[in-house]
Amino acid sequence: MWSLSLEWMLLALLVFWAVGAYNRLARLRSGCVQQFGALDAHLGQWHAMLQAFEAQPKAEGQSPALVHAQAALHQTAAQLQAALVDARGRPLRETALASLEHACSALDVAWQAMTKVAVDTGAGAAPSDAPSPDPDPLQPWQQRWTEHQVRNRLGLQQFNAAAERYNAAIAQYPARLLAWLLGFRPVRSLLVEPVVSKAQESGT
After folding, report:
1. Residue 40 has what pLDDT?
2. How far apart are CA 123 and CA 139, in angstroms?
3. How many Å separate Cα 138 from the centre of its chain?
4. Is the pLDDT reported for residue 155 higher than 90?
5. What percent of the chain has pLDDT above 70?
6. Which residues, other chains included, contact 74 with Cβ-Cβ below 8 Å and sequence gap of 6+?
7. What is the residue-averaged pLDDT of the chain?
8. Mean pLDDT computed over 171-193
């Protein structure tokens, strides 16, 4: 009698623990998804800024180097858009996050290359006979770029913090046994790029 009651009590405790552990893991995983949603919003605004930049009228007589750099920027912006669409459907998948990280990195390189070519070829300066010369038409866009990078960096840090808490929880024993049984997988963290690139630092 007492032995049977003890077994039922132990079973009940095990069930209660399993339910509590599952709820905690699910809540932490949901936190990762929510933080990715916030990051997705930041990256979407970043992409919208690039679309606005590309939509502005192009100056006549651009150098082939600048045309090539702008084409590379357009290609990497399209790559970011595709990576975002893919990641929205499966925000915590390893391959989706890796593709998004690569797209962000490639876009940063393309932007820095384009601005460097623009400065080197004089495309970043207004004509001397312009009625209201702008000393550097790229400056407002560079400022907006930096502002977006600050927000992107914050979003990345918050996502990585959520992923770190979740990964630590599913790695703890005995919760890791439950995580393995229920298919909870580790979430890949994303590389946090510096707000100011080396190219920008060398130009200051």
Report:
1. 95
2. 12
3. 24
4. yes
5. 80
6. 54
7. 83
8. 83
- Burial code of 128-142, b = ≥16 C-beta within 10 A, e = fewer? eeeeeeeeeebeebe
Return all residues near 140 (Cβ < 8 A) that are at least 6 apart: none
192 close to 160: Cβ distance less than 8 angstroms: yes
Amino acid found at 140: P
More confident residue, 9 or 55: 55
Tokens of residue 109, six digits: 């390189």
What token pair was written down for 191?
């590389």
Hey, is 134 helix, strand or coil?
A: coil
pTM (two decimals): 0.79
Question: In degrees rounded to 5, what are phi and psi of residue 47?
Answer: -65, -40
Residue 9, token pair as written in the block: 């009590």
Question: Judging by beta carbons within 10 Å of its beta carbon (0-12, 13-18, 19+), is residue 56 exposed, middle or buried?
Answer: exposed
Identify the residue whose tokens are 């690039």: 50
Give the ranges where 56-137 is alpha helix by DSSP (H). Answer: 64-89, 94-120
Half-sphere exposure of 6 (CA within 13 A, CB side): 3
- Residue 190 tokens read as 């994303």
